[in-house]
Amino acid sequence: MASKNIIVKFSDGRKCPQLGLGTWKSKPGEVSQAVKDAIDIGYRHIDCAFVYGNEKEVGDAITEKIKEGVVKREDLFITSKLWNTFHRPDLVRGALMKSLQNLNLEYLDLYLIHWPQAYKEDGELFPADENGKIQFSDVDYVDTWKALEPLQAEGLVKSLGVSNFNSRQLDRVLEIASIKPVVNQVECHPYLIQRKLKEFCSSRGVMLAAYSPLGSPDRPWAKPDEPRLLDDARLKAIADRLGRTVAQVLIRYQLERGNIVVPKSVTRSRIESNFSVLDFQLSKEDLELIDSFDCNGRFVPMTASLGHKHHPFENDEF
Ligand SMILES: NC(=O)C1=CN([C@@H]2O[C@H](COP(=O)(O)OP(=O)(O)OC[C@H]3O[C@@H](n4cnc5c(N)ncnc54)[C@H](OP(=O)(O)O)[C@@H]3O)[C@@H](O)[C@H]2O)C=CC1
Ligand SMILES: CC(=O)C(C)=O
């Protein structure tokens, strides 16, 4: 089963299955089964986050599959992410310990700073004022990074990375880092191909991990009149010609571009077909055609943090 995975190597020498299962919006009552199905199908990489509110149920599934002897811990690659309310250096270790406890793991394979912008540290994950506006904290993510580094030395996490960092923010971390980030996990799909950010990351030995690769149709703020990537007629034509689904083309596109990719599903048949992408390739012409659909179309703009001095998408080109 594990041989179905393509393995990529990080700048720190560690290995990671290129295709993983996303878990955002996977309801606690559904995610255990989804993770168990995924492991049975051959997935070895699960993308989690404290803020998804389902780490405990993901952990239950992992524990069960290890107990059954289907996988060993070392066969799995588990990512989690430090939420915005835990950026203050004295809160970082506790946040990681909570995710480890939730997931019933002794270590994570990868821990990411989820976003560069910090929120007020008052216990709520989305601390809002009486008008519903998120309360910001001015902790600088470079100080958060410095607090993360000793956790790798302690063996609590194998690799460290960032998520939703723009090029300037990533460079600031690289300037002060003793341990370099191995990954920048960002939104990436044909409407937002991230050409410049990808080149920037590659030039610094940072791997790009693509989130929302199917266009996140179940994002809570989706409007009925917004374009749906999975329904794009141009992608459908490519998929039909190749005898594949649009989702398979979207996932294969990321693999061919050398990106890690973490499509989410709680539907067994989709979890299975999303993983069946090793027996076909996209031609150079198809890859270029898909690149041409780029329209700076962002499905996860994080509008709740607009105005934050570290909001990644407001002041920098990429
Ligand atoms: N670092 C960050 O800030 C972020 C990280 N992420 C990570 O990336 C993952 C993936 O992104 P996400 O935004 O969830 O969205 P995706 O682009 O992966 O889309 C998920 C949606 O697509 C549906 N779907 C899955 N497979 C198929 C298929 N074969 N055919 C048709 N529909 C399908 C799912 O439905 P169903 O489940 O009902 O089958 C679900 O509604 C997240 O779950 C999370 O782990 C995402 C956003 C931000
Ligand atoms: C889904 C996710 O990771 C967000 C919105 O931060």
From TrEMBL:
Q: Which parts of the sequence bind substrate?
A: 114
List, alphabetically, the InterPro entries matched.
AKR, Aldo/ket_reductase_CS, NAD(P)_OxRdtase_dom_sf, NADP_OxRdtase_dom
Q: Where is the NADP-dependent oxidoreductase domain?
A: 19-293
Q: Which UniProt keywords apply?
A: NADP, Oxidoreductase
Q: State one molecular function term (GO).
A: oxidoreductase activity
Which residues are responsible for catalysis?
A: 52
Q: Where is this site: Lowers pKa of active site Tyr?
A: 81
Q: Does the keyword Transmembrane apply?
A: no
Keyword Oxidoreductase assigned to the entry: answer is yes
Q: Which family does it belong to?
A: Belongs to the aldo/keto reductase family.
Q: What is this protein called?
A: (African queen) hypothetical protein
Organism field:
Danaus chrysippus (African queen)
Its taxonomic placement starts with: Eukaryota, Metazoa, Ecdysozoa, Arthropoda, Hexapoda
